[in-house]
Amino acid sequence: MNKLIYLDNAATTKTDPRVVEEMLPYFSEKFGNPSSIYSFAAANKEVETKQRDRIAKSLGAKSNEIYFTAGGSESDNWALKATAEAYKEKGNHIITTKIEHHAILHSADYLEKHGIEVTYLDVDEYGLIDLDELENAIRPTTILISIMFANNEIGTIEPIKEIGEIAKKHNILFHTDAVQAYGHVPIHVDEMNIDMLSASGHKFNGPKGIGFLYIRKGVKIRSFIHGGAQERKRRAGTENVPGIVGMGAAAKLAEDSMAERAKQESDLRDYLINRVLKEIPYSRLNGHPTKRLPNNANFCFRFIEGEGMLIRLDMKGICASSGSACTSGSLDPSHVLLAIGLPHEIAHGSLRLTLGEDTTKEDIDYVVDNLKEIVKGIREMSPLYED
Amino acid sequence: MNKLIYLDNAATTKTDPRVVEEMLPYFSEKFGNPSSIYSFAAANKEVETKQRDRIAKSLGAKSNEIYFTAGGSESDNWALKATAEAYKEKGNHIITTKIEHHAILHSADYLEKHGIEVTYLDVDEYGLIDLDELENAIRPTTILISIMFANNEIGTIEPIKEIGEIAKKHNILFHTDAVQAYGHVPIHVDEMNIDMLSASGHKFNGPKGIGFLYIRKGVKIRSFIHGGAQERKRRAGTENVPGIVGMGAAAKLAEDSMAERAKQESDLRDYLINRVLKEIPYSRLNGHPTKRLPNNANFCFRFIEGEGMLIRLDMKGICASSGSACTSGSLDPSHVLLAIGLPHEIAHGSLRLTLGEDTTKEDIDYVVDNLKEIVKGIREMSPLYED
Amino acid sequence: MYSEKVMDHFENPRNVGEIENPSGVGTVGNAKCGDIMRMYLDIDENHVIKDVKFKTFGCGAAVATSSMATELVKGKTVEEALKVTNKAVMDALDGLPPVKVHCSLLAEESIHAALWDYAEKKGLTIEGLKKPKSDIHEDEEEEEEY
Amino acid sequence: MYSEKVMDHFENPRNVGEIENPSGVGTVGNAKCGDIMRMYLDIDENHVIKDVKFKTFGCGAAVATSSMATELVKGKTVEEALKVTNKAVMDALDGLPPVKVHCSLLAEESIHAALWDYAEKKGLTIEGLKKPKSDIHEDEEEEEEY
Ligand SMILES: Cc1ncc(COP(=O)(O)O)c(C=O)c1O
Ligand SMILES: Cc1ncc(COP(=O)(O)O)c(C=O)c1O
Ligand code: FES
Ligand code: FES
């Protein structure tokens, strides 16, 4: 197969070659352990600080509020579990949503087994939470609200600023899983009253295996990974210097190009959405029509099962997904699509296309042209479809 | 400064350029998420499996017993915390030693705050545990023995096979922190009855930010990082493909060259030890004279404070350490040196030199020649020293 | 994740379609994954399966096993067709990944269901044929064997 | 982590050594880090510090602050020397990292201890000089401010 059209940027992105360039010297040349005292290695501490500054700046945060982790999942686990631990005197109730990533949901499951009560907010047909419902869910024992910035499947962007205000008003910590949003849409932790924020390098053209947790000064959570005194004693483990450098470089590139990229991606996204809805019968758009990530399109096609569609797209060199990458192998339909009210068999026929900086109009046309044929072919095989 | 003699390979190692070479295609070309279904990305799943095979083979383990993590600290946290959780029906007692790395000790601290009882075994003047003391410490409620394979400061290698036998006899799980040993000395999980083993890529010329936990089939520990279904549902997070490839490549290189490298390093190490003990007065070797890592030498010099010595060595282009890198910044003397019975002020004057594949006899001579001068100079300044 | 044979049968499925006035039709589904398979049989007076067609709403493995199953039973007698197990279908496809074993069960059971329908219509008893369930799945546990 | 001035004073410490028959000697230590500093003063009849030497067992910052402290008090009167605080020493060195602030206290206190010794020997009272403690440390908490 020659053609390759990568439309799964929500699963992971290409590490930008400029980012790799910045990382390279830190493998075999400047390989010192930043915690070491000699100048060869201590210089890496400064390099690290530079990346912290870059990331802090992009969020309107302070440099020492950025803590490096191994990725979004670790950041999410840390935020939830360590908050439950640190604030147990205050209460044992956490509010989150039904459409969170599994890194949040399974951490919440875990906490439920350990005496924490969790409220999972419903969402409407677009995937938006209801602010009144949120406010009503607050109890005197609520210690944390954790609501994702943007959903990884359907791309819906939650009303973060409003959630932040409610959290602040009730003096409750607010964590947001911004793994899909960071580097793609503007975020300001003060204006949005965000106390903790998770992000993952590989979702914004940085490397895999590195992420960060923003922790507002004053939030008293402790370590999730215990050991050495790295990251101001809050996250043990020899620093992944090349990863940190790569994520810092990617954060900078993402910030600098954000406005332009968002415009380009959302124009193409809308073109894609319009063509699909017009040209493919029994198709629907999942997620909010406008409050959505610039690069995300998510559809359901009735009488279509997702895997077959993906394989046929793959045969045409098109990389796409149905549900999220990390639950593939599971037979259950997406919890997100069920939460927005789709019935089981329709939720099965979903397709997520997430664009990147390199995506062109020609790519989109090629995809839609092929998709039409594929959907038609599968429907002809389906015992559910009669046309 | 031009000359650079890196003798801190216990803190971290240079990523072998051949390893970086293997990693490179996985950043910007084959960047797919291994959990994705399309062939472009699914190929990365096979690449991952290949690395798992390589590592499993080096330990006499099965491929599906290797779980990738973000490093040694995460592996250690996982092994301890998840075992305590999974086996709490069986008991609440863990046995470890006083000389473990902080990733173990601080995880144990954490568990002590959560109802787990921990026995910290003493060690003798060489840093070896006493097997009888171990066996006596076992209780009906003991669920885990966690004893490091080799100590990161003084290099002493514990009697792992014998510990494994005791653990097996009493039907208790045995975890070993092999972060310093893996890739440096032969390890066989079956022959040594090891049930879990932690390792970290950057300690054997692989990249930073990647490690693994070996978990014997049948050990029922669950996730430490909850979320997606990666790593057979036991460790969530998008796989760090370049890191995994790098660690696999490094594991292979380490295994292939181990015997030769160990011979070369231990010859030089012994040459270093002999010169230092002969030529520098009031010096002593810490750790066991023969049961030690091939590349580790650790000394105490009386009337000498460590930091000053390190800075002066640094001025001569020599990278060395005192205690471990991740506790630098702390004023406390090494818990390891205190555990082998050194008084406070002597423990302060320790120097760890850890050799690498590239270390030459000329390097050693240069280091010893300079060290003699430096020790002399500092002693002349010391109010404790009268000669 | 799929063998070449699976991909071939998925890409070019054999015997897709319907049979008008079939001797027997069987539809089975797996409630867990939501997939559905329907088999149409045309059986002659000698109990030989002259023609077979299928329609499937399901994953790649479901399509490939339906297709392979039709090939395996075509031309066989009813008694022979009964011996085409999901295992035989999988073997003919060079295997399936573990999470996809249940898909091949759909193929076996949809053939059985069609045969049952045929037997009922004809008032026959076919030895060894049991009334099919409409919801087909293995007794699969959440994979927990560590 | 250290400024250039600190490195310079560490690499080339000024006034290392002992004074025979000093006017005053002071030794202080920090039990926590185990470091020790000793100051020797040679003071003339006009209460002017004519010469000063030190010996230090301690970290880079301890050596540098001892060295700088000797430079700052040399030629000063006893009263002036008393005003050389650890802050003044740190400033003269272009600052120290937070974990190293206590090292500069050793320098201040070892001067004070030597002056106290001088005053005792001479039977003088120096205004503002208190009896030095032998164990010097800040009231440092485990850094926990998040
Ligand atoms: C014995 C030992 N265990 C655990 C670790 C932690 O490994 P890492 O820093 O790669 O997380 C180290 C090294 O820092 C070590 O030497
Ligand atoms: C919303 C969201 N949260 C968390 C994660 C987990 O990030 P990672 O896989 O990098 O650990 C992802 C992506 O997989 C995500 O999309
Ligand atoms: S997943 Fe249901 S038939 Fe394959
Ligand atoms: S660390 Fe004790 S004097 Fe500097």
Describe this structure in words.
Chains C, D: Pfam families: NifU_N (PF01592). Chains C, D: InterPro entries: NIF_FeS_clus_asmbl_NifU-like, NIF_FeS_clus_asmbl_NifU_N. Chains C, D: It comes from Aequitasia blattaphilus. Chains C, D: This is Fe-S cluster assembly scaffold protein NifU. Chains C, D: Residues 1-122 form the NIF system FeS cluster assembly NifU N-terminal domain. With 387 residues, chain A is α/β, with parallel strands linked by helices. Chain A has 2 domains: 5-12 and 258-381, Alpha-Beta Complex (Aspartate Aminotransferase, domain 1), CATH 3.90.1150.10; 17-253, Type I PLP-dependent aspartate aminotransferase-like (Major domain) (Aspartate Aminotransferase, domain 2, 3-Layer(aba) Sandwich), CATH 3.40.640. Helices cover 41% and strands 13% of the residues of chain A. Chain A has helices at 17-23, 25-28, 39-59, 72-86, 102-112, 131-137, 160-169, 230-233, 241-279, 306-315, 335-339, 344-347, 361-381; strands at 5-6, 66-69, 93-97, 117-121, 142-146, 173-177, 196-200, 211-215, 283-285, 296-301, 318-319, 350-354. In chain A, the strands form 3 sheets. Chain A has a 7-stranded mixed sheet with strand order 2-8-7-6-5-3-4, with helices on both faces. Chain A has a 3-stranded antiparallel sheet with strand order 9-10-12. In chain A, strands 1-11 form a two-stranded parallel ribbon. In chain A, helix 7 links the parallel strand 5 and strand 6. In chain A, helix 3 packs parallel to helix 9, helix 4 packs parallel to helix 5 and helix 10 (306-315) crosses helix 13 (361-381). Chain A is globular and about 70 Å long. The relative contact order of chain A is 0.16. Chain C is α+β, with helices and mostly antiparallel strands and 146 residues long. Chain C has a single domain (4-122), classed as Sufe protein. Chain: A. Chain C contains 5 helices and 3 strands. Chain C has helices at 4-11, 60-73, 78-82, 86-92, 101-122, and strands at residues 24-30, 35-43, 49-57. In chain C, strands 1-2-3 form a 3-stranded antiparallel sheet. The mean pLDDT of chain C is 90. Chains in contact: A-B, A-C, A-D, B-C, B-D. At the A-B interface, helix 1, helix 3, helix 4, helix 5 and helix 9 of A face helix 1, helix 3, helix 4, helix 5 and helix 9 of B. Residues 30, 33, 35, 58-59, 61-62, 100, 103, 106 of chain C line the site of one FE2/S2 (inorganic) cluster (FES).
